[in-house]
Design a protein that fits this description.
Helices cover about 65% and strands about 5% of the residues. It has about 475 residues and is mainly alpha-helical. The protein folds into two domains: about 90 residues, Fumarase C, Chain B, domain 1 (Orthogonal Bundle), CATH 1.10.275; about 270 residues, Fumarase C, Chain A, domain 2, CATH 1.20.200.10. β1 and β2 form a beta hairpin.
């Protein structure tokens, strides 16, 4: 059966978009991406049809037929949609497939009281919810790997570098705890982004609502939102949740890239703080002695894709009219999904690296012992004896110079003998390594809280999904 959408005649426009323009404007078909988008469209359709039937806008029998048809097409992997031409985009090809099954008198009811605009805004948020929750889950696994390794190596002394020079004594576990805390803050921000996705745009129609008697609170609940749209223009025009998520994802990638930079420095053969097993390194095609921790270079560079996506999205939205527009709804959003998947993969790869890294405690402590990293602790000992800090700083600096240039004793006579481990243990204030056990315990508490928050969010979405399935089945049974 050929429905009214089989041609490109909309009533107002009689001819289709030129073939070349279609090819250039629309993405090349990707069955995996298209099926994911169609799955979300079908989910929204079920909620919309349930609500229309419950409100009496559509006769229950026709709503049931539409619901069964949507279910059948989804069960077929959306093959009836993917086989159709798309002169006006994937949604109208989907509606055409439904109409061919149901006939125009029934299929034509599917779009009652809505527009592609509120449909797209809704599926954008549903997809964002899935992808952001995946990022939080994968980020949580990285945090777990960091904290587990931190516990194993909490007392392995090493020098922390500033300006690529040994600076102060810390421990490897203390360092990993710090990275975990930085990631936890970003993951908390991603959870906050998820919690901010409260209003479902469905019902905002093209941009100014509708005079069809809709129950937008019902569709919102069936899709796992807290409420329906408050203001139609805001619901259609805004993509702030996507920009927020990209910003957090970019920050996560930046933190991982900095972790990778440190591990790359520390695993260099001439420093040797950290060793990577064969399953995390590669060889050289020409140099037989090489063991290249090339995975770290991916972790350093790949987050730039996420940064680029944020710049791309914000640039596309900047100066676009605050209403429905292709710039905002299509072009700006094109990079969001790939960027969040990249973030998820970067976090997963980083977790493998952290779990596989093998610190060398003897090497780390040996380097710390000959690098004068306890010098500040020696100066502080003079301060406690009443010497002004600037004078103490000068005395200790001069003593280091004599030890380096003349081979003089370090520390010289009259200075406290403090080794790097003791200096690290004494640094109990200001969050120093002397309080590393407390910091690790606090980080584990935050990790458990993050897991619970994500679990609660997903349970809420699953309850909504179950309610939608039950309501759809009730209408199909009549």
């Amino acid at each position: 059966m050929s429905g009214p959408l089989a041609s490109s005649d909309t009533g107002r426009i009689a001819r289709p978009l030129a073939g070349k323009a279609q090819r250039l404007c629309y993405e090349a078909p990707d069955p995996v991406v298209d099926r994911a988008q169609l799955r979300l469209i079908a989910q929204v359709d079920r909620a919309h049809l349930v609500m229309l039937a419950e409100r009496g806008v559509i006769v229950g029998e026709k709503a049931a037929r539409l619901l069964r048809t949507v279910r059948q097409i989804e069960a077929e992997g959306f093959a009836p949609v993917l086989s159709l031409p798309r002169p006006r985009g994937i949604y109208l090809a989907y509606e055409e497939a439904v109409t061919r099954r149901c006939g125009p008198d029934v299929g034509g009811l599917l779009h009652t009281g809505r527009s592609r605009n509120d449909l797209n805004a809704t599926t954008t948020l549903l997809a964002l919810r899935e992808r952001c929750s995946d990022v939080v889950a994968e980020g949580g696994r990285l945090v777990t790997a960091l904290l587990a390794a931190a516990g194993r190596h909490l007392d392995d002394v090493m020098a922390i570098h500033t300006h690529y020079q040994p600076a102060m004594p810390i421990t490897y576990g203390y360092y990993l705890t710090g990275v975990a805390l930085a990631l936890l803050r970003e993951l908390d921000r991603m959870v906050a982004c998820l919690r901010s996705i409260r209003r479902c745009p469905l019902g905002a129609h093209a941009v100014a609502g509708t005079d069809i008697d809709l129950d937008t609170e019902r569709t919102a609940a069936l899709l796992g939102f807290a409420s329906g749209p408050l203001h139609a223009v805001d619901a259609i025009a805004s993509r702030d949740a996507s920009l927020d998520a990209l910003g957090v994802a970019a920050n996560l990638g930046v933190t991982v890239s900095r972790l990778a930079a440190d591990l790359q420095l520390w695993s260099a053969a001439d420093l040797g703080y950290v060793h990577f097993p064969d399953w995390l390194v590669g060889g050289s095609s020409a140099l037989p002695q090489k063991r290249n921790a090339f995975v770290l270079e991916h972790l350093k560079a790949r987050p730039t894709r996420v940064l680029g996506a944020w710049v791309s999205a914000t640039s596309a939205i900047r100066s676009a009219p605050f209403t429905n527009s292709i710039e905002v709804g299509t072009e700006a959003m094109a990079s969001v999904g790939p960027a969040l998947r990249t973030t998820r993969d970067v976090l997963a790869l980083a977790a493998l690296v952290v779990a596989g890294a093998r610190p060398r405690p003897d090497t780390m402590e040996s380097v710390a012992a000959r690098s004068f990293v306890e010098a500040t602790a020696v100066a502080n000992d003079l301060v406690r004896q009443g010497v002004p800090f600037r004078e103490a700083h000068h005395r200790v600096g001069a003593a280091v110079l004599r030890a380096v240039d003349e081979g003089a004793d370090w520390p010289p006579e009259g200075f406290a003998r403090i080794d790097p481990r003791t200096a690290a243990d004494r640094a109990r204030f200001g969050g120093g390594p002397g309080s590393r056990a407390e910091a690790l315990a606090a980080a584990w508490t935050l990790r458990h809280r993050l897991r619970a928050e994500l679990r609660d969010l997903r349970r809420g979405w699953n309850r909504a999904s179950d309610a939608l399935a039950a309501a759809s089945e009730a209408i199909c049974r009549g």
